Amino acid sequence: MKRISILGSTGSIGTQTLDVVRKNKDKFEVVAISANSSINLLLEQITEFKPKYVAVYDEDSAKALKNMIPSDIDIKVLSGMEGLVQISSLDEIDVLLTAIVGMIGLVPTLEAIKKGKTIALANKETLVTAGQLVMEEAKKRNVDILPVDSEHSAIFQCLNGENKKEIDSIILTASGGPFRGKSKQELEHVTKNEALKHPNWSMGRKISIDSSTLMNKGLEVIEAKWLFNVEPDKIDVVVHPQSIIHSMVQFVDSSIIAQMGCPDMKLPIQYALTYPNRLLNDFERLDFSKLSSLTFEKPDLNTFPCLKLAYDSLKMGGTYCAVLNAANEVLVNEFLEDKIKFYDIPKYIEKTLEAHKSIEKPTLEEILHIDNWSREFVKQCIK
Ligand code: NAD
Ligand code: MG
Predict the structure, then answer these.
(1) Burial annotation 102-140 (CB, 10 A radius, 16+ → b, else e)
(2) How far is the CA of 113 from the centre of ligand 2 (A)?
(3) Which residues form the 1-deoxy-D-xylulose 5-phosphate reductoisomerase N-terminal domain (predicted)?
């Protein structure tokens, strides 16, 4: 029985994780769940999965949830950052599945690593912000960081049994998002509702906007660097609109291994939970006779400057990626509130990066400070 704690159990990845657990109740036990403030859904999850702990980040929502839970249910209700840290480092868990959105997942994830918990990681912003720190801590404690992001799960599977020294390059596939093929001019005035319409995946709002700007792919390039220890010039992005090949690895002898399947996040979630084993399921199987074609094209860095900004930040190193991520989090929020335009996102990220004085090997405190600086700076810019 694998005992799981979930950061962000009410979101897109969180609920799909619970779908996987629901089908395998003899294999997985949900010990703790959490959310920012979605207490109605948390209550449903408590009733169904009977976790021992629930953490609600928003204090008022935590209080409200406490009053809603029937008295015959035995559960500890925690709140705030302290609550998230507590449910991430419980003695009673084996795995922390981090499906929270944003770098707010960083501190709880580090605490889980320090306690030796396996990390199933969907929350890419944590690695983008503090990849070096997180990977060093994981190495020190002999902790596995198992990717849930579909591209990274693909690469992880392609590297099974391979010698990492023989990697020539990593090829991340990108669907291209809802605006593939559009010109800069056409995108000048797009609305959030247009940006939220992803062709292949149904996801949370933040990652959906990131997919429309291609920042999501940029964050994934950074995530790949830290997970697989590969330099940025060896990480390529290719647009593959069908999302059937989830990513590939090219080896020094020119051989390429790809991982394929129907686009369904439940597969990488399940694999991270069952690794190194695989588990029979009823997921849709790929039918090659029905696939008309698999196509590939170069990403358009002129129309989607966020991808280039992410590569540049990674190459510059230091704390540039933390600044990129924090500014992006703020700007995506503003875009979702109709306060800025689509191209204000790359414009103000660039401005923030230019104003930043990077630190070479930052501590956690320095990263948190810089994250905060970036948020404040970008807010001033758009005022
Ligand atoms: P989502 O918006 O659907 O869900 C986010 C979850 O985080 C919710 O449960 C929410 O309550 C919780 N949360 C947000 N702020 C919180 C806070 N302050 N404290 C506690 N909980 C908080 O997002 P999602 O689409 O599930 O994405 C989650 C993460 O997984 C992101 O980092 C995203 O990039 C990554 N990811 C998602 C997908 C996908 O298909 N959705 C694919 C790959 C990677
Ligand atoms: Mg992905």
Answers:
(1) bbbbbbbbbbbbeeebbbbbbbbbbbbbbbbbbbebbee
(2) 23
(3) 4-131
Looking at beta carbons, which pairs linking 28-32 to residues 24 or more positions away fall under 8 Å? Answer: 28/1, 28/2, 28/3, 28/4, 28/273, 29/1, 29/2, 29/3, 29/4, 30/4, 30/5, 30/6, 31/3, 31/4, 31/5, 31/90, 31/92, 31/93, 32/5, 32/6, 32/87, 32/90, 32/93
Amino acid identity of residue 156, one-letter, is F
Q: Is 73 left (phi over 0), alpha (psi -120 to 50) or beta?
A: beta
Q: Measured at the alpha carbon of residue 215, what is the angle toward residues 11 and 368, in degrees to the nearest 5?
A: 75
Could you tell me the CA-to-CA distances from 263 to 3, 6, 29 in Å, in that order? Answer: 27, 22, 26
At 298-318, the pLDDT tens digits run: 999 999 999 999 999 999 999
Regarding pTM above 0.85, the answer is yes
Quick check: CB of 232 below 6 Å from ligand 1? no
Distance 124 CA to ligand 2 centre (A): 9
Q: Which amino acid is at 208?
A: S
289 is in an annotated binding site: no
Residue 292 has pLDDT above 90, yes or no: no
Structural domains of the chain, count: 3
Ligand nearest to the CA of 220: 2
Residues 155 and 246 in one domain: yes
The reply to whether 312 falls in a domain is no
Nearest ligand 1 atom to the CA of 219 is 34
Distance in angstroms (rounded) separating the CA atoms of residues 222 and 235: 9
Residues 178 and 256 in one domain: yes
336-353 pLDDT per residue, tens: 999 999 999 999 999 999
Atom of ligand 1 nearest to the CA of 201: 40
Give the pLDDT score at 83. Answer: 98
Q: Is the pLDDT of residue 198 over 90?
A: no
Annotated binding residue 183: no
Q: Of 242, 273, 305, which residue sits at a domain end?
A: 305
Domain-ending residue, one of 278, 305, 332? 305
Domain residue limits at 273: 149-305
Q: Going by C-beta distance under 8 Å and a sequence separation of 6 or more, which residues neighbour residue 364?
A: 106, 107, 110, 130, 133
* pLDDT one-digit tens code per residue, 256-282: 999 999 999 999 999 999 999 999 999
